[in-house]
Amino acid sequence: xxxxxxxxxxxxxxxxxxxxxxxxxxxxxxxxxxxxxxxxxxxxxxxxxxxxxxxxxxxxxxxxxxxxxxxxxxxxxxxxxxxxxxxxxxxxxxxxxxxxxxxxxxxxxxxxxxxxxxxxxxxxxxxxxxxxxxxxxxxxxxxxxxxxxxxxxxxxxxxxxxxxxxxxxxxxxxxxxxxxxxxxxxxxxxxxxxxxxxxxxxxxxxxxxxxxxxxxxxxxxxxxxxxxxxxxxxxxxxxxxxxxxxxxxxxxx
Amino acid sequence: xxxxxxxxxxxxxxxxxxxxxxxxxxxxxxxxxxxxxxxxxxxxxxxxxxxxxxxxxxxxxxxxxxxxxxxxxxxxxxxxxxxxxxxxxxxxxxxxxxxxxxxxxxxxxxxxxxxxxxxxxxxxxxxxxxxxxxxxxxxxxxxxxxxxxxxxxxxxxxxxxxxxxxxxxxxxxxxxxxxxxxxxxxxxxxxxxxxxxxxxxxxxxxxxxxxxxxxxxxxxxxxxxxxxxxxxxxxxxxxxxxxxxxxxxxxx
Lengths: 253, 252
Prior knowledge:
The complex is a heterodimer. Chain A contains ten helices and no strands. By secondary structure, chain A is an all-alpha fold.
């Protein structure tokens, strides 16, 4: 796509701006900031990726992955505000998921060990793991509050933290995985996934694009399950005080 | 001799009102296994006190002990197995009635006492129940009795009962009272029983703890309490005509 063609896409932004002014939505400033940010961020990432693809330096690849995981952990950590050390725990869950996914993909030679494959697929895996972590924590917060009676009944009968929260954890893990599984069922029918669309637009054979998309869909499902289960196992104690009483975490923001 | 149970200078702040105490200076000692009726008008913190004794809430000040071992020094799990709380609003766990009754056995990997269960079910008026039915379908009164039975299977040393007969009809209430009295005699379980039913208090308890004016106002034998209450507040309470009213249940 030429720069001229790209600049014509600003027409879409102008349409949005006009709608905002016309309907007095007051979103002009946000739209302007969003436009500039998305353009700058994406262009920057484009140059960074180009540089990394050219050098193929494993340290640089690792650095990019660490950066992705850090940002993802902080972002998902907002859903667990009030839970001590939750960002670390999310980082552990996401890193374990990423290592397992890449281990399998590279170990079975499903993808080539080049940054062209590793970085985008990792990005999608980490992004999905981030969403799943956020959903899990949100659901836990709601469940712990709604199921306080159930948890306290079990505690009254001498249950351990794990025994008392087991059912709540199970329900939260399940609920955090539902969007991924639902997405799996309707993929291709309701919308064409971004990666596949991108590959087709860039000139790839649709069948080849579909193969990669299938890989992503399957990888997402297992990464959702792994992230959610690991996070639940390493974070459940945070919902209790030291002397094994329920700690209710208020929703912030 | 070591007392069975003691609480010393317990103080709990009002939720949301940091400077105001819900109760303070709550001190008592239970020398031998007994049944205590915990009385007092609504809002004195009786349920909160029971929850503190069960280690489900923490006191802002003071100490609680079982056989002179402080609650703080004991693993909360172990404490709750010995000092068990039965809530006013009983919560059934998802699953069958049998699953609920087996909770203690599953949690602690101990044999399920089916003989005891089969003995107690008819005595609690629950022999008509199909145990494979979902526990969530039970009526309020049935849930209450199942949750009591579930707690008894733990064989605690101290049983904290929070208005557990509030949702029962007369005959079920009498059954529960009788079962618990026999249980106390056979097992030597100490019971601290919150009730608003004065007749019940007279019948089941040997001791009365009366809460009022933000503290444990009276601690004496049931007979003495009802014959000659020491405080004006207790006198009014004993003479009040509405002897078996219900208060709003504690939300948890």
